[in-house]
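Quiz preparation item.
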């Protein structure tokens, strides 16, 4: 019983996750100590034991870390192909669990391996991937070390100026963080670079500074390297005595390091063990043969069989050897390519992120002056301009509206390409939705003397579950395209079923016109961004060439297909097929805020006070002009801190808050206001992309959002709506 209890207790202790992790950490620490003492064989044993424990507990982070350490050890003992294999395993795990800091270290070791293989450009790619991860994690010590390795790689490529600049960056980070080992090594390598750039005096000063740090902190390997570098520098300077003295110091320290290195003896021990095992096996065979020596027939038979067996084994061994070589080469090539593909993916993701940030910044900066363009043009048109000025102002307003549409199209494509567009299915009436689209586009059609015909299959149900907004966008783009390229003609919109399976209907939508048509050459790439018929057509009919690209992106999201059939001079037919789920539930009622549609004169505006928080002087003027026209009084402040103090000191009805301002942002200012006033109406008057920032606006405590540049009618309705709701609340109270 005692034995069973003891065994059960031991098993539970061995399986305890905390104890397992402690054992893993202990072996990792021991492997590092053995590595620093040049005892690579024992370091390998500790890593193997740690890996076995980590796999037993299925600890992904530890498994990835151990494979990375094994890769580093294999690199040190010049087994580069094995190192690549281990590092690929580490990277695969670390990417899945988002262990970014250790992933950066694995990339950095990958770079060291490529340097050892003299594949310097692959090494630079690996170091770039490592730097990206270290910057994300604010791991400055690892970043400094990686920059140093990158600088040394440029040194190997004889690009000494680039090497100097990058090592200088490494040195700056190392000094700031007091990373003495990296600082010492960077100084030594910078000395080599300055020597190559023919500045031997500067090189000697840097090398001696690095030597001093290495000596004070007993950095043995760096100390050994510095002796050799300084010896070479004195030799180039013609001081052969000092050169010889430092060379002697280098040779003595090298001998000392070699005496500490046990890798060779460890390999001898391992080889001796394997040889002893084989010798024992051979002794057993010899003894058996001696027993059968007296029997000639048996001896002859054994001889024949032995020869046959040896021949077969030899052929089999040769075949296995060749196959193994082929397999190893193939595996090594695959691991290398896999590593290169991972790094390429990292670079592509970084480029995509950079592009998205660039577009976000540019579009915001464009929207701000557009607010001035559209606002001023509307104001001037309302102020009885001279007859000869009206057309110019209308052209200015058209240009502003066109540019805003263009910006919105670019943002839509960017979101589609970045996979940031989500499907939002809801119950709706398909027939009603298309009818509404036709009604909305009828004015544009009438301007071109076009009649729109809508045919909805009588056997097709009306209600479906799908993302009605995206279907609307597709139809608006296609019908708008037909209106643009058709004069004095007709457009037919047809919807019918082509397949039904359970509740899923595959519907075909057709948009046909008898306009100018599209040539076969242009049809081949018409769904690409900025693709248009020709310069002449573009000038005549307008457009940015982004509409069909957006349609194609939305079709992919909805898992549909789109086709085009056209002939020059005879018209064009776009038809697309998408799956929709049939439902008997009628269209959900929208709970959106209804805009004020009463008479503004019914509102008491005399005591209404509005605070405009805006740092742009032109925007201040436009907003104040609009409010004055609405018979509303406003105060203007140009920063967030003062705005909070003004709100504390005054009783405002509405706050119009800009987002990007000097000092604290509009977001932060609103959060501060909400700490002492939960009910105040605060509108975000902003040029940022609303869809991407909606959750941030809600968290900050904004009542609603008015995007810039805004339409004056919508702006007025929102303000009147807010004032009317406040009035109703106070009346009921």
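Solution:
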């Amino acid at each position: 019983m005692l034995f069973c209890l003891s065994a059960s207790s031991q098993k539970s202790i061995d399986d305890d996750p905390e104890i397992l992790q402690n054992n893993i950490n202990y072996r990792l620490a021991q492997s590092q100590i053995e590595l620093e003492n040049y005892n690579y064989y024992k370091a390998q044993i500790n890593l193997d034991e740690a890996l076995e424990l980590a796999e037993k507990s299925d600890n992904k982070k530890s498994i990835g870390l151990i494979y990375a350490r094994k890769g580093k050890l294999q690199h040190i003992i010049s087994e580069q192909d094995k190192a690549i294999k281990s590092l690929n395993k580490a990277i695969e795990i670390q990417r899945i669990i988002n262990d970014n800091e250790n992933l950066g270290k694995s990339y950095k070791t990958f770079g060291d391996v490529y340097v050892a293989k003299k594949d310097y450009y692959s090494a630079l790619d690996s170091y770039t991937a490592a730097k990206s991860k270290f910057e994300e994690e604010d791991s400055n010590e690892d970043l400094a070390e990686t920059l140093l390795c990158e600088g040394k790689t440029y040194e190997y490529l004889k690009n000494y100026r680039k090497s100097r600049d990058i090592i200088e960056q490494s040195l700056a980070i190392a000094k700031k963080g007091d990373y003495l080992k990296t600082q010492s090594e960077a100084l030594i390598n910078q000395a080599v670079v300055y020597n190559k750039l023919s500045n031997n005096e500067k090189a000697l000063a840097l090398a001696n500074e690095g030597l001093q740090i290495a000596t004070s902190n007993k950095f043995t390997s760096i100390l050994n390297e510095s002796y050799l570098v300084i010896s070479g520098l004195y030799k180039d300077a013609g001081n052969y005595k000092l050169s010889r003295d430092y060379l002697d110091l280098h040779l003595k320290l090298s001998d000392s390091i070699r005496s500490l290195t046990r890798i060779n003896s460890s390999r001898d021990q391992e080889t001796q063990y394997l040889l002893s095992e084989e010798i024992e096996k051979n002794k057993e065979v010899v003894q058996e043969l001696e027993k059968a020596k007296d029997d000639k027939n048996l001896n002859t038979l054994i001889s024949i069989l032995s020869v046959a067996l040896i021949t077969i084994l030899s052929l089999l061994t040769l075949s296995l050897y060749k196959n193994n070589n082929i397999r190893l080469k193939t595996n090594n090539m695959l691991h290398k390519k896999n590593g290169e593909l991972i790094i390429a993916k990292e670079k592509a993701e970084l480029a995509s992120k950079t592009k998205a940030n660039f577009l976000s910044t540019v579009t915001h900066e464009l929207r701000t002056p557009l607010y001035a363009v559209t606002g001023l043009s509307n104001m001037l048109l309302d102020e009885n301009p001279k007859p000869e000025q009206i057309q110019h102002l209308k052209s200015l307003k058209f240009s502003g509206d066109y540019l805003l549409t263009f910006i919105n199209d670019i943002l839509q494509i960017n979101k589609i390409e970045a996979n940031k567009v989500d499907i939002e299915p809801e119950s709706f009436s398909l027939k009603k939705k298309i009818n509404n689209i036709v009604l909305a586009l009828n004015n544009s059609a009438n301007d071109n003397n076009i009649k729109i015909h809508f045919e909805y299959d009588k056997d097709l149900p009306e209600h479906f579950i799908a993302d009605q907004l995206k279907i609307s966008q597709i139809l608006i783009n296609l019908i708008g395209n037909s209106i643009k390229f058709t004069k004095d003609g007709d457009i037919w919109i047809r919807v019918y079923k082509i397949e039904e399976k359970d509740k899923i209907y595959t519907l075909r939508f057709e948009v046909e016109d008898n306009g100018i048509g599209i040539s076969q050459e242009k049809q081949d790439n018409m769904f690409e961004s900025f693709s248009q018929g020709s310069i002449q057509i573009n000038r005549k009919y307008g457009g940015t060439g982004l509409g069909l690209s957006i349609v194609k992106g939305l079709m992919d999201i909805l898992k549909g297909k789109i086709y085009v059939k056209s002939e020059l001079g005879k018209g064009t037919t776009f038809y697309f097929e998408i799956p929709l789920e049939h439902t008997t539930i009628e269209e959900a009622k929208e709970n959106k805020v209804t805009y004020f549609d009463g008479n503004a004169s019914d509102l008491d505006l005399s005591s209404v006070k509005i605070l405009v928080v805006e740092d742009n002087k032109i925007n201040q003027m436009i907003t104040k002009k609009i409010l004055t026209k609405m018979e509303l009084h406003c105060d203007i402040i140009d920063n967030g801190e003062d705005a909070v103090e003004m709100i504390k000191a005054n009783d405002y009805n509405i706050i119009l808050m800009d987002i990007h301002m000097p000092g604290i942002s509009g977001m932060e200012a609103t959060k501060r206001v909400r700490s002492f006033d939960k009910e105040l109406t605060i509108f975000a008057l902003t040029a940022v992309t609303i869809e991407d920032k909606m959750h941030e606006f809600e968290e900050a405590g904004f009542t609603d959002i008015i995007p810039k540049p805004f339409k004056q009618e919508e702006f007025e309705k929102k303000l009147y709506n807010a004032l009317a709701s406040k009035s109703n609340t106070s009346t009921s109270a």
